[in-house]
Amino acid sequence: QQPVQSPQAVILREGEDAVINCSSSKALYSVHWYRQKHGEAPVFLMILLKGGEQKGHEKISASFNEKKQQSSLYLTASQLSYSGTYFCGTERVRDDKIIFGKGTRLHILP
Amino acid sequence: DGGITQSPKYLFRKEGQNVTLSCEQNLNHDAMYWYRQDPGQGLRLIYYSQIVNDFQKGDIAEGYSVSREKKESFPLTVTSAQKNPTAFYLCASSIVGRALSSYNEQFFGPGTRLTVL
Predict the structure, then answer these.
(1) Residue A80: what are its φ and ψ, rounded to 5°?
(2) Half-sphere exposure of B21 (CA within 13 A, CB side)
(3) Secondary-structure percent of chain A, ordered helix, strand, coil, rounded to 5
(4) Model confidence pLDDT, tens digit, residues A2-15
């Protein structure tokens, strides 16, 4: 029941854009996005709730299509600091836990 | 400073021994979680607790046990029944659980890397 993330890995040059997708086979109540640097703990980026609007700050934003049970994370004009592994976490309706995907490795080249 | 601490950072044990990983938080969070991370597998939920003296199994609870005697502490024991215990273990907490968990981010500790020889 893990959500499926795509792509598994992506390499970009600094300044390029990236999109990371997350899809679930179950109806979702919310989607969480986290970023993890190598050897460090995951860090929260944002939560998207059912019925909510697209969220984001600065050059990282996300959308949540409830009907398709999909979410996408958008990284615009990527910076070197964006490198890391991005995880989406999904919460089903009336559930009280988050199930994380396997992650998308993003590497930004100078 | 508020946060989550996990100790030790690296742990080595012989096969067949039980080992307990520590997780402490001073964020006054109600919910706490244990995840296991293996290369290419993401974060898999082992156990979680919404309130003191209560906890639920996650997706991969076999071979693990937990306790929640205090709000700030949620230790994880890796028993000898766990077939592949070598992994990176992450503890997390959030403000509330149940239906309100969607509104709150999870804060993660630095993790413990367990190696069973």
Answers:
(1) -55, -35
(2) 33
(3) 5, 55, 40
(4) 999 999 999 999 99
What SS3 class is residue B8? coil
| Closest chain B residue to A1, measured at CA | B59
B99–A96: do the CB atoms touch at under 8 Å? yes
Half-sphere exposure of B104 (CA within 13 A, CB side): 20
Q: For A55-110, what is each residue's pLDDT tens digit?
A: 666 688 898 988 889 999 999 999 999 999 999 999 886 667 889 999 999 999 99
In chain B, which ranges are continuous DSSP H helix? Answer: none
- Out of A44, A49, A94, the one facing B106 most closely (by C-beta) is A44
- Candidate from B35, B90, B105 with C-beta closest to A44: B105
Query: CA–CA separation, B41 vs A103, rounded Å?
Result: 8
For tokens 């996650």, name the residue. Answer: B58
Q: How many CA atoms lie within 13 A of A78 on its CB side?
A: 22
Question: Residue type for A39, please?
Answer: G
Residue B22, both tokens: 């520590």
Question: What are the backbone dihedrals phi and psi of residue A4, each rounded to the nearest 5 degrees, phi first?
Answer: -100, 125
